[in-house]
Write a structure and sequence with these properties.
Order of helices and strands: EEEHEHHEHHEEEEEEEHEEHEE
Strand order of the largest sheet: 1-2-3-4-5-6
Number of domains: 1
Radius of gyration: 16 Å
Shape: globular
CATH topology: Metallo-beta-lactamase, Chain A
Strand content: 25-35%
Distance between the termini: 34 Å
Number of helices: 7
Structural class: alpha/beta
């Protein structure tokens, strides 16, 4: 783990929430998944202990496990989520998803700003390139920080696996295309911070991922 990235694993889905900060102690919260006050307190305690000021909240996508903490972040720091416009359709069904899984959910505030393919999101002197990588969810984005050689991939690519494609709005062929054309186009040494489970690297997945290899996939 880089010394400017902190990972938390929250909620019943073991979702990874990330805090990334710059030299001015400004931070972005990526996919806040806090589902109870203990998880909320864990995040706040870390930010307070390191004197970090949240200045942005980004959702890679809007499945319920990745947006459970949106309302808390808004109530605590006044930050509305930033996401791709196409992710809105999933966000609007989050309450129903929470009911289906029996999870308490305070509805997320609606975003007032959106990210699209090719945008550069700036956190001070840190520049995140936005990659549109749908397939697991509509409007799914990844955040590539070239200067540090890392990408925050949400639920697109995992260590030895890929995102589910059996949920509403999923598309298996689209996911494979996103991985082959966007994720595998990154340098092999790029560290992939995943929405669930441990990190991996692009090179490792290109060589050994059983679901998607460069140029072809067992899914097709």
């Amino acid at each position: 783990m880089n010394d400017f990235i902190q990972e938390f694993t929250f909620n019943p889905f073991s979702e990874n929430t990330f805090v990334v900060w710059n030299g001015a102690n400004e931070c972005v919260i990526i996919d806040p998944g806090m589902s109870n006050r203990y998880e909320q307190q864990e995040l706040v305690a870390f930010l307070d202990a390191n004197e970090l000021t949240p200045v942005a909240l980004i959702n890679t996508h809007c499945h319920i496990d990745h947006v459970l903490g949106n309302a808390f972040v808004y109530d605590k720091w006044g930050l509305k989520p930033i996401m791709h416009l196409d992710a809105m359709q999933t966000l609007l069904t989050a309450t129903r998803s929470a009911e289906m899984f029996g999870i308490n959910y305070d509805p997320s505030p609606k975003p007032t700003a959106f990210l699209k393919e090719g945008d550069m999101f700036a956190l001070g002197d840190m520049k995140f390139q936005v990659l549109l990588v749908p397939g697991h969810a509509p409007g799914h984005i990844a955040l590539y920080l070239e200067s540090a050689g890392v990408v925050f991939a949400g639920d697109v690519l995992f260590l030895g696996s890929i995102g589910r494609t059996d949920l509403p709005g999923c598309d298996a062929k689209q996911l494979v295309h996103s991985i082959q054309e966007k994720m595998y186009a990154l340098p092999d040494e790029t560290v992939v911070y995943c929405g669930h489970g441990p990190e991996t690297t692009i090179g490792h997945e290109k060589k050994s991922n059983p679901f998607v290899r460069p140029g072809f996939s067992v899914l097709l």
